[in-house]
Amino acid sequence: xxxxxxxxxxxxxxxxxxxxxxxxxxxxxxxxxxxxxxxxxxxxxxxxxxxxxxxxxxxxxxxxxxxxxxxxxxxxxxxxxxxxxxxxxxxxxxxxxxxxxxxxxxxxxxxxxxxxxxxxxxxxxxxxxxxxxxxxxxxxxxxxxxxxxxxxxxxxxxxxxxxxxxxxxxxxxxxxxxxxxxxxxxxxxxxxxxxxxxxxxxxxxxxxxxxxxxxxxxxxxxxxxxxxxxxxxxxxxxxxxxxxxxxxxxxxx
Length: 253
What we know:
Layout: E1 11-16, H1 25-33, E2 53-58, E3 68-73, E4 92-93, E5 102-103, H2 113-117, E6 123-125, E7 152-154, H3 159-171, H4 187-191, E8 197-201, H5 208-212, E9 218-219, E10 231-234, H6 238-242
Parallel strand pairs: 1-10
Antiparallel strand pairs: 1-8, 2-3, 4-5, 6-7, 9-10
């Protein structure tokens, strides 16, 4: 059973699908920022690690009426996460101000119950020890721990950046719960060349996400499940919004 917590700050991500070009810069920056080792066989989608994954959508029509869209998918940081209550060793939790679902690697026993519970397929099991090609290990981020094989990992909205931002706030006498928007931005947001991804505190009216999340074009994935994701998408195209929640043709939207 999940105990709901009303956080004073709730960090959310808004992705404007109509701006996304599917370039994959968000995926690359996520790999680098979070010390995700390159896979020996990147084509094996059952055993690769991609905290951020870009999906291609289409409207199901043939040329010249065919349209495509790209949907970046990080962990949804759900308000009511299905992954948390199934963990037998409390290796994942949602109890920190900001609303980010944590993953505590030393506790994880690799049972993968959380992976089975997540409807977004946003969790990944480490099948291999992380290895970097000679010389590439020098690019590792000193702020992010590497994970051994046998544990589950996932996107955490670049949590180390949040820790750094809060430390800066304390040093400068700013309330860590009311930081300026640009003090804490995940790597994927910074690297997006088209400005499709916006990030901030939805409870702060001065942050852009506060307005974006309430747009009439905003939606979330699988909202019917009631998990209240903290990732919002925006599209002005109706066929894109329909694909977000497995609507049937008979339903009204």
